[in-house]
Specification:
mainly alpha, Cyclin A, domain 1, 7 helices, 60% helix
Length: 148
């Protein structure tokens, strides 16, 4: 029985969603003899690895980066220059280790920001409390400036 490309893609996305849910749900690993092709592919394919995947044509548009995107790039480059991370570590943490929900749900530089925050906390450059407090401080400052 042959299925359409759309059905295969939907089945793949749904299967990966079971393996990498947005909210973790405990699951039991299947026995090796019960893993079919769809499940095997979902286990072994990273969400960022889209080479050869069927898709629809998109229109290419030049996009000028917004200020927050330029600031994110500069901040992340400074972190690399200061030895906080290297390019491979950043790439892996923002493309491979985030799961499908985050990878497809955040803009490109949004993943950079999330990765920078995670690495700064993981490597104990800042505590999670310090980071949350700073985010709240910046939000309040932004709200005050926006209301003027």
């Amino acid at each position: 029985m042959s299925s359409s490309t759309r059905e295969r893609v939907l089945r793949h996305i749904n299967t990966v969603g079971l393996l990498q849910p947005a909210l973790h749900q405990a699951t039991h690993a299947p026995y090796p003899d019960t893993i079919d092709h769809t499940l095997y592919r979902a286990y072994t394919r990273g969400v960022h690895d889209v080479g050869g995947e069927p898709d629809v044509p998109i229109q290419w548009e030049e996009k000028e980066e917004e200020q927050w995107e330029l600031n994110t790039f500069a901040t992340c480059e400074c972190l690399a220059w200061r030895g906080v991370w290297n390019a491979e570590e950043r790439r892996r943490r923002q493309n491979v280790d985030v799961g499908q929900t985050v990878y497809l749900g955040l803009p490109y530089y949004g993943r950079w920001l999330l990765t920078a925050a995670r690495i700064l906390v993981d490597k104990q450059y800042v505590t999670l409390t310090e980071l949350v407090n700073k985010i709240e401080e910046v939000k309040k400052r932004h709200e005050q400036n926006s209301s003027r």
